[in-house]
Amino acid sequence: MGDRNAPGAIQVVTTPDYEVMVIGAHPDDDDFAASATSALWAKQGKKVVWVIMTDGTEGGEVPSTPDAEFMLLREQEQRMAAEMIGVQAVEFLRFPDGHLVNSEATRKAVVRLIRKYRPRVVITHDPTQLFFAPDPNEEPNATGYLNNPDHRATGNIVVDALFPSIGNPRAYRELLAEGLLPYRVHELYLFGTREVNTYIDVTETIELKGQALKCHASQFDSDSDISVRVRERSADVAKEAKKKQGLDMQYAEAFRRIKLHIPPEPKEEAPTEVK
Ligand SMILES: [Zn+2]
């Protein structure tokens, strides 16, 4: 843009504060997709924030439970899980579960949070994944499944917030008064994707992932084998990492990684001349 040095121009911030923001549609999505990676990075001293887009009130089987009660229960479970993982902050946006849409209100809410935390990496749902379905000719006994519309909506909201609004000084100008300056996210990681290009070795933190998922007691029976299932799934992902990229991992989480901003290399000092 030509008016970058004009009076009143605002520079886009490119220095992150948090390492990563994970944005999931429902309480437990961040846990399923990226809790072992979150735990690993948190152990390395990096700052992690989790965002949950909806109130989670459709994640149950009992229609008579009041929404407000169920929402608070699920948020409490999510907080316990996040604490287990070492997440520093959790934000609940409380949009109605099952009805999430890519709208002015939802995009603005995400712009506000990303400008507030300035994560280097944003992790969210792959919005392009309509369904996951094996070819019945190849796997006649396997069923496919349809991706939850809230997952796709979350992915779309985040992608549309990332560009152009988050880094645009003229977008959502009312946020400037809250001190929320335009910012540039460095990398986007997508989960729930068929286009994986990045595997994270989470052998060190897979145990925590199982424990975090167990905190979501409203979603899994107390005698559920959720931590066993999580290990099996992560072990399968690790096998895929070996097959596709020759990587040796016991447990892995998988993402499609997209670089959006590469910070300039710090300038090296000119070598002193030797005579
Ligand atoms: Zn979900």
UniProtKB/TrEMBL annotation:
This is PIG-L family deacetylase. Gene3D superfamilies: LmbE-like. Coiled coil: none annotated. GO terms for molecular function: hydrolase activity, acting on carbon-nitrogen (but not peptide) bonds, in linear amides. It comes from the Bacteria. SUPFAM superfamilies: LmbE-like. PANTHER family: LMBE FAMILY PROTEIN (PTHR12993:SF28), N-ACETYLGLUCOSAMINYL-PHOSPHATIDYLINOSITOL DE-N-ACETYLASE-RELATED (PTHR12993). Pfam families: PIG-L (PF02585). InterPro entries: GlcNAc_PI_deacetylase-related, LmbE-like_dom_sf.
